[in-house]
Amino acid sequence: MIKSSNSSGYHLQLTILLMVAVVFGSVSMHAASTGTTYLVNATAIDPGSGKVTPNAVIRIEGDRITAVEEGSDELPGKREDVIDARGKFILPGYIDAHVHFFQSGDLYTRPDVVDLNNVRPYKEEVAWIERHRRDTFERYIQSGITSVIDVGGPMTNFRLRELAKSVEKAPRLAVAGPLISSVSRPQLALKGDGPIVKIDTPAQGVQLVQKLAKQRPDFIKIWYVVGPDNSVEKFRPVVHAVIAESHRLKLRVAVHATELETARAAVAEGADLLVHSVTDQAVDEPFVRLMRERGTILCPTLVVFERYGRTFAGKLELTPQERAWGNPEVIASLDVTKLPPDKIPDRIKAALADPELVLDRIRKTYEVALANLKTLHEAGVIIATGTDAGNIGTIHGPAIFREFQLMREAGLSPMEILACTTANGAKAFGGEMGPRLGAIAPGKMADLVILNSNPLEDIAHASDFQAVMKSGELYPAASLEINPSPER
After folding, report:
1. Residue 57, SS3?
2. Percentage of the chain with pLDDT > 70?
3. Domains in the chain and their CATH numbers?
4. I need a surface site. Which of 5, 199, 262, 358 has the fewest CB within 10 A?
5. H-helix or E-strand spanning residue 349
6. Is the torsion defined by CA of 470, 475, 478, 484 positive or negative?
7. Is 326:395 a contact under the CB 8 Å cutoff?
């Protein structure tokens, strides 16, 4: 039995070291998801509770954590079951609460935004995405992300949940199907299976919810887009009907709403998750109070707000993690200066002609979005980290580290950011699995990241991986390198 010890730190560490047969950095470090494994000598950080356990002993049986204690001089079991994590920092696996696997993140993935079919037909883009499913999954594990929520795609999206279960290096998935939308995006529909379905009446919305319910979705997704022809109130009866039917069927609802009045209407109608920040104006006290009282979760997706504009203006600045761990073909495509001059869409031409105008718009968006995040967070609204990865320039996997930077700019501390990325991400994940995620505690899934440096001192350290564990399977960082980079 693991027990706490009052021995001095030096004596305890020496005792454990003598018992350890597996040196943490050795090439043999790999824990199977059967039997019992001990991680010892590390500092365990549980952001949701704020608890920091020095000299921790974490016992893992199969794919679950069964005990977490501060040191022990009694470590039963075979020596090969003990892994020395001396000097390391262990956290729950990260959760990205907003991604889209039907998009690659490259320049060709949203022909409804910029039509580049004359350079690369969209059907070829979709085929490329399908061929690279496993590669994309693995980049999430490489980035310490052990669970993700795919907040909408075509009906084939539901197959991804099963595929991820069958792939060794893949995050666990919660998924939504096609977006119930106020606008049409026919450019994205191939073979009649589009990721966005325009709904004109409440009855149509109810029918689509009933169709989706047969696939056991983790979320129903509403794309609440407003404009000159789509006012907040015009689409609200559909929102009301879709949320009511979803809740009747015990299904949660995620809503895309980036304007304050759209977001207010969505929360008032019962949205469980808002999947973007409000960017048009400062949130007011009635909205903050409504969010808090309803328990609605906010997923800010800050990184995506800069990536379209910066890409089109030729001003994209990827993080070192994105350059190292992002798919190189995706990254190479984002250089708009390589497009044939006679095939550059007008939107990109305009951005290239006046990049400062584009960057100024981005700055103004962040002035609002970062302040709103800080206001909502301080008011006690649940914030779950998400990236909207897959959109143009938002890289699957390592985009989360740019999200961390922006959350820090908003005023959140490293511990708060990590809580949003673990415990709060688990709340967003929900279902039967959500309560088993996001914490280092008995009964939780053995999803862990093991870092070489302390992320509480600097959130940049959150990508300094020694290893990643998913469901009790431990992968040294070197074994996860898909694109070795001289920067890492």
Report:
1. strand
2. 90
3. 9-92+439-480 (2.30.40.10), 94-435 (3.20.20.140)
4. 5
5. helix 346-353
6. negative
7. yes
